[in-house]
Amino acid sequence: MSGLVDPQGRRIRKLRISLTESCNLHCFHCHREDALAAAPADWLSPEEIAAIVARLAAQGVDQVRLTGGEPTLRPDLHEIVARLGRLSLRRLGITSNGLLLGPLLPALQAAGLHNLNLSLDSLDPVRFERITGAGEQGRVLETLAQARELGLEVKLNVVLFRGINDDEALAFVELAERRGIVVRFLELMRIGPDHEQNRRYYVPAAETLARIRQAGVRLRALRRPTGATAFEYRTGGGGRIGFIASESRPFCATCSRLRLSAAGVLRSCLMREDGLSVRGLAAAEWPEAVARVLSWKPVLRPGHVDQPMVRIGG
User: Fold this and answer.
1) Helical segments of 125-245, H only
2) CA gyration radius for the chain?
3) Measured between alpha carbons, how far is 223 from 57 in angstroms, rounded to an integer?
4) pLDDT tens digit string along 243-261?
5) Pair 14, 56: CB distance under 8 Å
6) What is the pLDDT of residue 185?
7) Confidence of residue 196 (pLDDT cuts 50, 70, 90)
8) 21-46 tens-digit pLDDT
9) Cβ 69 vs Cβ 22: under 8 Å
10) What homologous superfamily is domain 14-311 in, according to CATH?
11) Rounded CA separation 55/260 (Å)
12) What is the 3-state secondary structure (H, E, C) of 43-79?
């Protein structure tokens, strides 16, 4: 079998690149003031990112997503997208909280950006501020509207927290129907040093799905492509919703991803802290290094990881 294939036979087609470990939100379940982020001087340059991705693309990776931290904090974001946009990628996307992204979208789309994953955990401004520490929810919704006007494919990622925003599931379903976007409900993962304390906020996907059905929403299951993180439904009102049930229904057995840190460490899994620096790696060393990282991909989901999410890239 050609291309990037791990010892379990899983074909690797996707790469998540963390451009920075910094973030302009202070979400209670994620942000850590004491987390030691890689300094800008340690970031991969646009040239280095493109060179690494080009090597992986030659081996079969054709879908790249830029993450963080918050990737719009990179002043050279446009150059990164432009360089990646010139490679033979089938999809080039970005995951963002949307606060700074709006003014950048036209130029990023012109440079080759295909799609956007936008994070928004509440449609209530007060709750949004409680969750994120920021009072700028309106800017996220403006970014959402602008992205749709530009014709970008948009997925809205929503983490539900018990007792905080778990009663908003129906409101997000209505948003999916009204705006023509995909809304995906994410389970709170056991990531970061506070993962045990945060378990009281965990809402399983099955509970959210049952709540939506009990409200009378008609759902039709959609086919789940191999390697997909979400299982999705079409609603009776024409919307599309999904569930990323990383805790209750892990998808490790079909995972098709590798991850690259802001400082150039190639990693096999969101839930593992080990990795191998590929920065400046000679071409002759590349095959052995990638094979080693592939050998670390787990078959069963690790229970937790103490490293903060901003250090890994969501």
Assistant:
1) 125-132, 137-149, 169-179, 205-214
2) 19
3) 26
4) 999 989 998 899 999 999 9
5) no
6) 98
7) confident
8) 888 998 888 865 545 556 777 899 99
9) yes
10) Aldolase class I (3.20.20.70)
11) 13
12) CCCHHHHHHHHHHHHHCCCCEEEEECCCHHHCCCHHH
CB-CB neighbours of 2 under 10 Å: 7
Whether residue 46 contacts residue 80, with contact meaning beta carbons closer than 8 Å, is answered with yes
Q: Any residues with CB less than 8 A from the CB of 188 and at least 6 apart, and which?
A: 29, 159, 160, 161, 198, 199, 201, 202, 203, 247
Cis ω before 69 (30° cut-off from 0): yes
- Please state the length of the chain: 314
Residues contacting 251, CB < 8 A, separation 6+: 227, 228, 229
What's the token pair of residue 171? Answer: 């409101």
Residue with tokens 């401004």: 125
Q: Count Cβ atoms below 10 Å from residue 116 Cβ, excluding itself.
A: 27
**What pLDDT is stored for residue 36 in this prediction?**
52
Percent pLDDT > 90 in the chain is 76
- Identify the pLDDT of residue 313: 67
Pairing of strands 91-96, 63-67: parallel
